[in-house]
């Protein structure tokens, strides 16, 4: 970048669409400024400057000069100079990335204070009485040294806290507010010593140096450990960088006519209209967000300061009208003057997302396409979680704020580390804290739910939990949490670590013990047991309307992966338009294992045929049941795929068994032969060995039996007057010759069986071996359809063993950012996705109109559904519960 590259924007130069460059906070401050709302003046350093700094370790050329220009414009606007002794301008230096990362990065307030300007600030804060501004000024100065020391210079935060405790002890108090100006002046002295001891230098007095160092600390906080972890969780790209907002300070802690608060234009938990927010008189913004003191409901501001309250409501209406969406707002009142410190289109729960989108359509503010755009599959998935069944009237031991909905049950833990540890052992845990802070993130991720004693809907716990879709109950202020003793007390009950509690993140109720859960209304709606046209549940109405729109616009069909009649029936109720993958392997387990053993052990053709003859009617009955449930819809049945030894006992166990028998002089009998067969079939890499089509070509009669069972089942249903649509799918094909060989045999059987009852049976293949994708043009000659097995395609494309890598080293790959999400979860567009594209293009070139779908796990992953839409597949197939999610995302992919 050259030195005339623009790295700094004044608020008037930006707008809300520049989030990439100015971050969300900066872009919206600019937007509000241009709307004429009362925003304190300021400017923004771009994410490009941050990226340049992180790449080189130095501020890019030109940045310093541009900051100087904008700073002097800010000084002119305010009529004050940064840190000037008599009448100082102070600024806040705040991070602000494209996507909100609450509490993850750094902020430094009161920049510009030093040994001289502290006196000037005291004068500004004075109400006329001599020395009346002193306490405030010295308190601000000690906060600067503390925040700056901790954030910019890595001074351990406890050191400052200990000094503060000492000062309070000397005063005989436990309350900060009891410290007077002299105490705080002395505390500043102590803080400066701590600062010097840890940094080897004096606390910087030059205002511009303070500013530059704070900016640098914000840049660096992009790569702070907790920020990296949060991004990974939220799938925020690692290379965006943060912008830095430099804003003139306004103070909410100048007395009872000052204060600070947050507001939502609608309820972020339910989406209902109304006035929602929290207010804290005589406090700074950080006090509210941190949830350290208990706030009052925003409505009470009307009583305290009606003029500001009315203005705030007007601004909220302006913002909602302008953004056409729920906005959240941070504001400060400085001596009766209202200032807007932040706004953004607010985070919300899944239920609120659907409800708000639906309301806005009703109000004529957005259309159905936009409503569909504003919800997503992950939210719909959340709404399909179960809720508490309260029919047993469990005792509510306390209530707090239902900050993020859901019904969570688990063992109580009090630290993040313990939560991670127990969850690692497979326990469900509830993380209980007085309040959370960013260090608790790993525990919050590991827990089923989060319970805090303090803080409202906008506390750290609430915001982060909502973002993660995790149940959270906060501000249960009857809760007395004793982390050291490992227990909390509430209304006479003592709850120890390890005890089970149930928390309701919707109602805010806490129950002791395990409360049973019941399915969600949304699931009941999908099941067909709630009628959306008569339902009074607004959520059911909203989901019905929006998913109906998705169904109307989507091009992708949605099928399901189901191997039983029951799953098929449920998926059909959930909207599945057929079966994309019926795995037949489970049909060889249970009682049938013995028959499979006989099949494998057979020495003569007659023995083998006997076993196959015994399996045939069983298989046929399986298919009859499934075809019946999916009458009129396509059912793709995949011929047996896994290696046969999976149906045999383990080599180790059997070997021991036989050895013991021989030792005792007993005859191991049949086990001896079985052991020999297991040995013969043992493979070093069974996933790459004798499975799928290879097995079908090696074991005579196996595929033939399955083809016959499928066709006979279909013929039987046709005879009953039904409409079966079987599609036979051959797994693990890598070469067209494999498929041709299977096809010749299969066609013979099909034509034999269908001589009496005309059934159309398609024969197609999975595309799950990279060679199949690369030779798809040839394979299409012998295939009437393709279905991508993206599980195997990922396994073989990357060379990652499906069963091993997640636990073995994926954590490291995720940590290093080699990928942001497991490629088994969300399709790797660049690599595996390229194989998919090649196969689609070459397959369709060879056979125009070739039907193509996907049946790997990716078929139900929201991101991947968009990819499959883009490359032109005909359908995705996923597990029954993901069918609604895929329907919704397939619709979103179009708009
Ligand atoms: C696949 O490989 O993506 C697939 C659907 O088959 P399976 O998971 O059974 O190997
Ligand atoms: Mg497979």
From TrEMBL:
<keyword id="KW-0418">Kinase</keyword>
<dbReference type="InterPro" id="IPR010121">
    <property type="entry name" value="Pyruvate_phosphate_dikinase"/>
</dbReference>
<keyword id="KW-0479">Metal-binding</keyword>
<feature type="binding site">
    <location>
        <position position="768"/>
    </location>
    <ligand>
        <name>substrate</name>
    </ligand>
</feature>
<feature type="binding site">
    <location>
        <position position="791"/>
    </location>
    <ligand>
        <name>substrate</name>
    </ligand>
</feature>
<feature type="binding site">
    <location>
        <position position="790"/>
    </location>
    <ligand>
        <name>substrate</name>
    </ligand>
</feature>
<keyword id="KW-0547">Nucleotide-binding</keyword>
<feature type="binding site">
    <location>
        <position position="792"/>
    </location>
    <ligand>
        <name>Mg(2+)</name>
    </ligand>
</feature>
<feature type="domain" description="PEP-utilising enzyme mobile">
    <location>
        <begin position="427"/>
        <end position="508"/>
    </location>
</feature>
<feature type="binding site">
    <location>
        <position position="768"/>
    </location>
    <ligand>
        <name>Mg(2+)</name>
    </ligand>
</feature>
<comment type="similarity">
    <text>Belongs to the PEP-utilizing enzyme family.</text>
</comment>
<keyword id="KW-0067">ATP-binding</keyword>
<dbReference type="GO" id="GO:0050242">
    <property type="term" value="F:pyruvate, phosphate dikinase activity"/>
</dbReference>
<dbReference type="GO" id="GO:0016301">
    <property type="term" value="F:kinase activity"/>
</dbReference>
<keyword id="KW-0460">Magnesium</keyword>
<feature type="domain" description="Pyruvate phosphate dikinase AMP/ATP-binding">
    <location>
        <begin position="302"/>
        <end position="352"/>
    </location>
</feature>
<feature type="binding site">
    <location>
        <position position="583"/>
    </location>
    <ligand>
        <name>substrate</name>
    </ligand>
</feature>
<keyword id="KW-0670">Pyruvate</keyword>
<dbReference type="InterPro" id="IPR040442">
    <property type="entry name" value="Pyrv_kinase-like_dom_sf"/>
</dbReference>
<feature type="binding site">
    <location>
        <position position="789"/>
    </location>
    <ligand>
        <name>substrate</name>
    </ligand>
</feature>
<feature type="active site" description="Tele-phosphohistidine intermediate">
    <location>
        <position position="460"/>
    </location>
</feature>
<protein>
    <recommendedName>
        <fullName>Pyruvate, phosphate dikinase</fullName>
        <ecNumber>2.7.9.1</ecNumber>
    </recommendedName>
</protein>
<dbReference type="InterPro" id="IPR000121">
    <property type="entry name" value="PEP_util_C"/>
</dbReference>
<feature type="binding site">
    <location>
        <position position="638"/>
    </location>
    <ligand>
        <name>substrate</name>
    </ligand>
</feature>
<dbReference type="InterPro" id="IPR036637">
    <property type="entry name" value="Phosphohistidine_dom_sf"/>
</dbReference>
<feature type="domain" description="PEP-utilising enzyme C-terminal">
    <location>
        <begin position="552"/>
        <end position="890"/>
    </location>
</feature>
<dbReference type="InterPro" id="IPR013815">
    <property type="entry name" value="ATP_grasp_subdomain_1"/>
</dbReference>
<dbReference type="Pfam" id="PF02896">
    <property type="entry name" value="PEP-utilizers_C"/>
</dbReference>
<keyword id="KW-0808">Transferase</keyword>
<dbReference type="InterPro" id="IPR002192">
    <property type="entry name" value="PPDK_AMP/ATP-bd"/>
</dbReference>
<feature type="active site" description="Proton donor">
    <location>
        <position position="855"/>
    </location>
</feature>
<dbReference type="Pfam" id="PF00391">
    <property type="entry name" value="PEP-utilizers"/>
</dbReference>
<dbReference type="InterPro" id="IPR008279">
    <property type="entry name" value="PEP-util_enz_mobile_dom"/>
</dbReference>
<dbReference type="InterPro" id="IPR018274">
    <property type="entry name" value="PEP_util_AS"/>
</dbReference>
<feature type="binding site">
    <location>
        <position position="792"/>
    </location>
    <ligand>
        <name>substrate</name>
    </ligand>
</feature>
<dbReference type="GO" id="GO:0005524">
    <property type="term" value="F:ATP binding"/>
</dbReference>
<dbReference type="GO" id="GO:0046872">
    <property type="term" value="F:metal ion binding"/>
</dbReference>
<dbReference type="InterPro" id="IPR015813">
    <property type="entry name" value="Pyrv/PenolPyrv_kinase-like_dom"/>
</dbReference>
<feature type="domain" description="Pyruvate phosphate dikinase AMP/ATP-binding">
    <location>
        <begin position="65"/>
        <end position="294"/>
    </location>
</feature>
<dbReference type="Pfam" id="PF01326">
    <property type="entry name" value="PPDK_N"/>
</dbReference>
